[in-house]
Amino acid sequence: MPELPEVETTKNGLLPLIKNQTVTKAIRHRDNLRWEIPAHLRTTLANQTVIDINRRGKYLLIEFKVGTLIIHLGMSGSIKVVSSDELLLKHDHFELIFDNDKSMRLNDPRRFGAVLFSADGLHPLLDSLGVEPLEVLFDETYLYVRSRKKQQNIKAFIMDSKVVVGVGNIYACESLFTCGIDPQHKAGGVSKKRYQLLTQHIKTILAKAIKAGGTTLQDFSQVDGSPGYFTQTLNVYGREGKLCPTCDGKISRIIQNQRSTFYCPICQT
């Protein structure tokens, strides 16, 4: 599933390609993904110029004078910019064609993504989001203060988008491994010192993943079609049964909150 680094990578790839470009057509090649794609985009975005592109959590925000196009990549989505006369691929579900004869296409095989619109930049899906992990508010005390009396496991806690956005399954597993924390610990029982260390590692790992272009496991690719290279540096995620990179143990996989968790039972205590 595309997580914060993959969405940030997509944003960074789109900026030089579509910022200041004017839409000639907005086309929905199917009516709905996770929710209905607004039919009015055909007229609302016609002749509108992309002012900027931002990210909030895992949502891509394409800014126009008339409002904000909100895109979520879902479980399997990716965005590419190609020549407008290039043949559509299977699962190209939404498209913006620009006056420079380029086309931005959302491809989403599993159709869990979303294309939405807000005239004022506000949306219920954005209202409840927690802090951004790479910004100042996510300081060394933030997680510790928010975790007190929490009975949920620490992995679920740091993946809660109402607490902090964008720390998805891959990066939660990798961050907990790097600082040696058992993902099964109750969030409220982890010490302040360990939360300080975890905060540092979340920031570092997300920044490295962005620099590497994100992580490609199955469907994700960058705007230019290349994969995310952070896959090559994963320590535990997807490595069940393989040797731990720091000890003689083997990586285990358990299910937490209906998701696979990968960790080293020896290193993570």
Describe the structure.
- This protein has 269 residues and is α+β, with helices and mostly antiparallel strands.
- It folds into 2 domains: 4-127, MutM-like, N-terminal (N-terminal domain of MutM-like DNA repair proteins), CATH 3.20.190; 142-263, Helicase, Ruva Protein, domain 3 (Orthogonal Bundle), CATH 1.10.8.
- The protein has helices at 4-18, 41-44, 124-127, 142-147, 154-158, 169-178, 192-211; strands spanning 23-28, 52-56, 59-64, 67-72, 78-83, 92-98, 102-107, 114-118, 252-256, 259-263.
- The strands form 3 sheets. The protein has a 4-stranded antiparallel β-sheet. A 4-stranded antiparallel β-sheet has the order 2-3-4-8, covered by helices on one side.
- Residues 216-220 have low confidence and may be disordered.
How many discrete structural domains? 2
What portion of the residues fall into strands of 2 or more residues?
Answer: 15-25%
**Taking all residues together, what is the mean pLDDT?**
91
State the major sheet. Answer: 4 strands, antiparallel
Q: What is the radius of gyration?
A: 20 Å
Number of helices: 7
Kindly, what is the distance between the CA atoms of the first and last residues, rounded to a whole number of angstroms?
27 Å
Question: What labels would you give this structure?
Answer:
269 residues; alpha+beta; N-terminal domain of MutM-like DNA repair proteins; Helicase, Ruva Protein, domain 3; 2 domains; four-stranded antiparallel sheet; 7 helices
